[in-house]
Amino acid sequence: MSEAADPSEDLVDQVSRTTGLTPDDARRVVADVLAYFTETTEQYVRRRHRELQTYGARNEEIFAKLGTELQHWPVRSPELSARQLRRIVYG
Questions:
Q1: N or C: which end of the chain has fewer CB within 10 A?
Q2: Can you tell me the distance from the alpha carbon of 53 to that of 51, in angstroms, rounded to the nearest whole number?
Q3: Residue (of 88, 60, 57) closest to 77 by Cα position
Q4: Where are the beta strands (DSSP E) in the chain?
Q5: Is residue 3 packed enough to be buried (19+ CB in 10 Å), middle (13-18) or exposed (0-12)?
Q6: Is the pLDDT of residue 77 over 90?
Q7: How many CA atoms lie within 13 A of 64 on its CB side?
Q8: pLDDT for residue 28 is more than 60
Q9: What average pLDDT score do residues 50-59 get?
Q10: Distance CA 81, CA 85 (A)
């Protein structure tokens, strides 16, 4: 029984061919990009909240920024209010 080729291997080949990266380096890049875009809305909100807090941003500013960022996130999420974002972060 033959297994189907991993669809990301086509992408690895494309990235390697068009950038000059080695196949191993291209595979790491593709894995990083895929992991980035498979992050759930909740994971994204929690991660970005921590990152923005690190730079001294206050929650009011953070939740406004997150709302804007999510509107432009390649994988669409529902529009979330500041209250909904707080609930994701703080439960």
A1: N
A2: 5
A3: 88
A4: none
A5: exposed
A6: no
A7: 5
A8: yes
A9: 96
A10: 6
How many alpha carbons fall within 13 Å on the CB side of residue 90?
A: 8
Residues 6+ apart with CB under 8 A from 26: 12, 13, 15, 16, 19
Tokens representing 39 are 């992050």
Burial 28-43 (b: 16+ CB within 10 A, else e): ebbeeeeeeeeeebee
Whole-number pLDDT of residue 76: 67
3-state class (DSSP) for residue 49: helix
pLDDT for position 5: 55
| 7 — pLDDT class (breaks 50, 70, 90) | low
CB contact at 8 A, 30 and 8:
yes
User: What is the mean pLDDT of the segment spanning 63-89?
Assistant: 87
